[in-house]
Specification:
alpha/beta
Length: about 190
C-alpha cells in the first residue's frame, strides 16, 4: 500500500499498466544457483499477487477505457519452459499462474505473461519485449527468444487408458493422493 501512496499523489491518479519483473531471474550457470534462486519462489509469487490486488481497481478502470495492462515477465527459457537448453529456475513459475488467474478476473484487461530467454542477447530481448507490449492478440502466455515468438495451441488428442504405470498397480500398492477428499480427487481414488 505504501507503493500505491507513492505512485498516486492525487485522488485522480491511477496506475494503468504494470510490468512485473518479479518472475524473471536471468540465466543460471550451475545447480547451486538453481537451488538458491528457487528458494524465494513463494515471495516472488506473493509479491505479484499483492501488486495485482493493490492496483486491481486502477487496472479495471483503465481496461474500461480500452487501456491498461498487466505484463508479467518470466525467464524460464523463452519458450514457456518447453525449450529447455540447460538448467532453468522455477522461481517465476508461480507468477505465471497468478497472471493467468488475473486474466480470468478481468477479461477486458490486457494480461500477458512474457517468458524471455535469459540466455538471449539483452538488446534482442529488450527489442522483442517492447514489440510484445504492442502486440494486439488474446494470448495470455507467450515466449520470446532469439528465434521468435512462441505461443501455445491446443489440439485434440486420444485419451490413454492404462499403460505401464497403471498395469503395475495391484491391491497391495500404496498411493498417496493429496488435495481435497471430494470431487475429482475422490473419483480418481475410486478408479
Amino acid at each position: 500500500r505504501e507503493l500505491a501512496g507513492l505512485l498516486k499523489t492525487r485522488p485522480e491518479d491511477r496506475v494503468g499498466v504494470i510490468v512485473n519483473f518479479l518472475g524473471f531471474e536471468g540465466a543460471r550457470n550451475d545447480s547451486a544457483d538453481l537451488l538458491h534462486a528457487d528458494g524465494d519462489a513463494l515471495s516472488r509469487s506473493l509479491g505479484t499477487l499483492h501488486i495485482a490486488k493493490i492496483f486491481f481497481e486502477d487496472l479495471e478502470a483503465s481496461a474500461a477505457e480500452g487501456e491498461g495492462g498487466f505484463f508479467n515477465i518470466t525467464g524460464l527459457d523463452g519458450g514457456l519452459g518447453l525449450h529447455v537448453k540447460g538448467p532453468i529456475t522455477v522461481g517465476g513459475s508461480g507468477t505465471l499462474g497468478i497472471t493467468k488467474a488475473l486474466r480470468q478476473e478481468c477479461l477486458s484487461l490486457r494480461v500477458r505473461n512474457i517468458d524471455l530467454d535469459p540466455a538471449g542477447a539483452p538488446q534482442v530481448m529488450v527489442g522483442r519485449l517492447f514489440a510484445e507490449f504492442q502486440w494486439d492478440d488474446s494470448e495470455t502466455a507467450v515466449g520470446l527468444d532469439e528465434g521468435g515468438r512462441w505461443t501455445f495451441r491446443l489440439k485434440e488428442a486420444e485419451i490413454s487408458h492404462g499403460g505401464p504405470f497403471l498395469e503395475a498397480l495391484d491391491s497391495d500398492s500404496v498411493i498417496l493422493v493429496t488435495g481435497g477428499a471430494r470431487g475429482i480427487t475422490a473419483e480418481v481414488i475410486k478408479a
